[in-house]
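In this supplementary section we document a worked example of the pipeline. Step one takes a protein sequence of length 359 as its only input; no multiple sequence alignment statistics are reported here. Step two produces a three-dimensional model, which step three serialises into structure tokens for compact storage. The input and output of this example are shown verbatim.
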Amino acid sequence: MFLVLFIIIYNIDLRAFDVPNDDGSSIILKWQSDEIFQSFEIFRSLNAGENFEKIGEVNGIEADFRDSNLKPNNDYYYKVSGKRDSILIFSNIAGPVKPVVQYFNLSRLPMAICIIILFASVLFYIRRARKGKKLFIRKIPALNAIEEAIGRATEMGKPVLYVPGIMDIDDPQTIASMSILARVAEKTAEYGTPLYVPTSRSMAMTMAQQVVKESATRVGRPDWYNPDNIRYITDDQFAYVSAVDGIMVRERPATNLYLGTFYAESLILAETGHSTGAVQIAGTAMPDQLPFFVAACDFTLLGEELYAASAYLSQEPIQLGSLKGQDFGKLIFIAVIVIGVISQIFNWQFFINLFNTIE
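The serialised model returned by step three reads:
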């Protein structure tokens, strides 16, 4: 009599359904019961009413279970048993439930919309730039100063030293540095000023040679190009720095440009260059090294200004459009963050749920 009353009062209502927005390999089980049970055992079968196999066990405070690694489009049946001391209470049989593959994750839809807007804005600004529309980009003092610094070196009859960082050509900052090097090489070739480019990677040297050679040819000075001025030194960090410091002390360049990826050597280079009296312009996206360059150099490109420099110097439509489009995308993300904070404060669940992921 007691057992019958226990079953009637503490019955387990089991529900099973396909996990939304997954690869069709999971089914979620949920049940409602009072916290009277010490544990729950979960059983699965491919046929209703027979051959149930135990697939897991959770403690009595749990009310759900996720069955993973299933075959898509197969029918599954489930039941759960609640255990208290020697008493076992079985739930109803839930099923059939079929895990289905969802090829598009709807929980990622808001992010997909943001990405589409970002790409659309980039394409829009590229098209405007190609049509000859003027796109405003704020002035970057460090880039404006490069041409003046090259002119100063020309007037003094001294060379220009360009250090493209210590990383290889697969580093984004090195690639950005090469774009700036092209502009620097054009100006130095035009003025007939020697340009030294010591590199710490052999591949970076090869690319730097090609960039400088093409720049010299572009301004009609192929005879100015000297491959011996673009040297590979060594991959070793501090041996490379020692060699570059030696060039500064021996050749006494009037302008030192440090643009790329730098680590502990940043202050050593900048301090040595400062001691020789050279005009120094640096740029890196390494946050830890920026304070050293700011302290020891005349001008510094901060963070992403290094990446924007290429578009700023070349005024090429595709690069300008990409830069403006990315800025527009950042504006969207900032707006989303601000609205998200306000939504949390005022509990606007609609906007909060837009960016929640479904497990």
